[in-house]
Write a sequence for this structure.
């Protein structure tokens, strides 16, 4: 008797200074592993100083055209979700359930101000200060790490500045307003970056505000994240 084929989830991660930081997200999704296998993709793996926004999103559109058919569901965290918002036509074509975690639809004044500040600090070669500033918002309402050990500081600075710039420049509202894709979006009630001020909903979307959490909703309050995620995936099976 042949074994059951495990369903696969594709996760496109956030803009991380170094991809090794994805381990925290990997750990938070372990509750799905008994039923699903999960593949994680670094959204900034091929980014360089000359990568422009239009080329970045067009390149991901081409890449996902090949990848999406092989997965049961697609998850996007922050920048990863912004990428998926620019590829909603592919998700709709393949009829895949979609989960967004802390993904802005556009940059409102507050998000723009905060990301601009971090990018400026990076460009001034103040990477440690930039990370402290960013993590202050990302980890809120909990304490952010005070020390950073970067294996490749120059590459980390480039990755983070370009990744945040792509988020800053993106406006997904035209795509979200017309999409028929069914998706679940989790945001933290205490988030200092992604909140009701810069997130719009679509006719088939479900927005869930997770209490006692910020940007890192799964790490902050996994207990309240699990039920809507499991229910959404089961209903989309």
């Amino acid at each position: 008797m042949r074994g059951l084929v495990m369903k696969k989830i594709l996760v496109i991660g956030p803009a991380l200074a170094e991809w090794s930081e994805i381990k925290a997200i990997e750990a938070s999704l372990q509750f799905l592993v008994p039923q699903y296998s999960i593949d994680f993709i670094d959204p900034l793996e091929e980014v360089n100083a000359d990568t422009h926004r239009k080329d970045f999103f067009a390149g991901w559109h081409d890449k996902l055209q090949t990848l999406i058919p092989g997965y049961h569901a697609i998850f996007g965290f922050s920048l990863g979700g912004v990428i998926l918002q620019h590829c909603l036509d592919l998700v709709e074509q393949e009829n895949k359930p979609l989960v967004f975690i802390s993904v802005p639809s556009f940059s409102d004044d507050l998000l723009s101000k905060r990301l601009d500040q971090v990018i400026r600090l990076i460009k001034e070669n103040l990477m440690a200060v930039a990370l402290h500033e960013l993590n202050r918002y990302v980890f809120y309402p909990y304490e952010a790490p005070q020390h950073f050990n970067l294996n490749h500081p120059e590459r980390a600075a480039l990755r983070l500045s370009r990744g945040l710039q792509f988020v800053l420049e993106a406006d997904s509202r035209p795509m979200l307003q017309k999409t028929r894709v069914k998706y679940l979006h989790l945001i933290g009630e205490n988030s200092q970056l992604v909140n009701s001020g810069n997130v719009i909903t679509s006719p088939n979307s479900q927005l869930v505000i997770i209490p006692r959490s910020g940007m890192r909703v799964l790490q902050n309050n996994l207990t309240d994240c699990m039920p809507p995620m499991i229910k959404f995936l089961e209903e989309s099976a």
